[in-house]
Amino acid sequence: MKDSVRVGYDLGINGVSHQMGTLKFGRDPKTSVLDVNCKAHDLENLYAVDASFFVSSGAFNPSLTIIANALRVGDHLIKKLK
Predict the structure, then answer these.
(1) CA distance to 35, 49, 65, per residue, from 40 (Å)
(2) 20 to 30 A Cα–Cα from 15, which one of 5, 7, 44, 45?
């Protein structure tokens, strides 16, 4: 269509810069990989504090949420190890 108008823009390579997801967290090991503190259900010493605990990527940069969750998990580990 010669007279059509395209609204929007191309994201390019920056549009795929927030890889995240794949390690669902929850209380039931049958339906999740991580517990609510981002610890692997089946391993005593494995915590995932990167973007993998997200369900999927949103429209905004997830860095601050990742940092906040890592600090939360760190506080949990400090209490657990005392």
Answers:
(1) 6, 11, 20
(2) 5
Domain spans, the chain: 20-81
Instruction: Please give the structure tokens belonging to residue 56.
Output: 């999927």
Catalytic residue among 18, 39, 47, 51, which? 18
Q: How far apart are CA 59 and CA 77, in angstroms?
A: 30
pTM, two decimals, is 0.72
Active site residue 18: yes
Tell me the average confidence (pLDDT) per consecutive run of 10 residues in the chain, 82 residues long.
67 67 91 95 94 80 91 96 92
